[in-house]
Structures are given as C-alpha cells and as structure tokens.
Amino acid sequence: MAAPHDVTTATHDVDLTLARWRKSSYSGGANDCVEIAELGEHAAVRDSKDPGRRPLLFSKAAMRVLVSGIAHGAIQ
C-alpha cells in the first residue's frame, strides 16, 4: 500500500456537471449502493440514496490506493 503522503483528496473546484455516474455490477436492484464518476484526474463517489448531496472527491492515485486496499483486505 502507498505511503500516507501519497494519498490525497481532490479539491472542491472539480466540475461535476458532466459527471457520468455508474454503479458497481455487484449492486442489487435496490438503490442502496455507492456510485462513482471519473473526472479527469479525479474520481467522485456518492451515495445513490442521496445523489443531491456533495460527493466525496479523490485524486485518481488516492482512489487506486483505496480500491487496492479493499481488494487485498487491508481496508474493510
């Protein structure tokens, strides 16, 4: 896993107007999952139950560290 200084979140000036949100293929039919949008050098994550709420923004490097940590059981 990357060192903590390599993990950064994106600034809040990322334009979300053209975001194309998608759900995981593992999501059920209910609206109870997270959605992700790729935005250039950033990734946005939001709760599908509350799409009007401001999403979490991450640099793509931080998102890779997060997903890798989850996949390898380091993050639960």
TrEMBL record:
Pfam families: DUF397. It comes from the Bacteria. Residues 19-70 form the DUF397 domain. InterPro entries: DUF397. This is DUF397 domain-containing protein. It comes from Streptomyces aurantiogriseus. The lineage of its organism: Bacteria, Bacillati, Actinomycetota, Actinomycetes, Kitasatosporales.
